[in-house]
Amino acid sequence: LAPNVVRWIEQLNIPVPSETELENFIEKQKKITLDEGLFAWLIDFTDLQKKADDSSPSMMAAIIDTSKERIFIKMTGSKQKIYDQSQNFKALVQSLKFKK
């Protein structure tokens, strides 16, 4: 999980936090239950952009592990758009169905 989070942080030009700060950031992210007992981590990068302008590029990502693969779903846009659409993104992720 951490290497993907770091890669996305770098893509957003956010200073990469220390290892301890990164662990704390990941631990604070929401974990939601999905279909078939699966879960998804919702990684909200606006949490690392408290002082950034609302028009700064940002992202929210969902990481889902199934028995066969790891699935990534990303929403990108301005910090404000990510904030505004975060509940819709969560609803989209929770609506996904997986075949056994």
Sum up the overall morphology in one term: globular
Mean pLDDT: 93
Number of strands: 4
Residue fraction in strands: 25-35%
Structural write-up:
There is one protein chain. With 100 residues, the chain is an alpha+beta fold. It has three helices and four strands; from the N terminus they run ααββββα. It has helices at 2-11, 19-28, 79-95, and strands spanning 30-33, 39-44, 57-65, 70-78. A four-stranded antiparallel sheet has the order 1-2-3-4, sandwiched between helices. A hairpin with a 5-residue loop joins β1 (30-33) and β2. It is globular. It starts with a helix and ends in a 5-residue tail after the last helix. The model has no long low-confidence stretch (mean pLDDT 93).
Question: How are the secondary structure elements laid out?
Answer:
Layout: H1 2-11, H2 19-28, E1 30-33, E2 39-44, E3 57-65, E4 70-78, H3 79-95
Antiparallel strand pairs: 1-2, 2-3, 3-4
Please summarize what this structure is.
The chain is an alpha+beta fold. The protein is built from three helices and four strands. A four-stranded antiparallel beta sheet has the order 1-2-3-4, with helices on both faces.
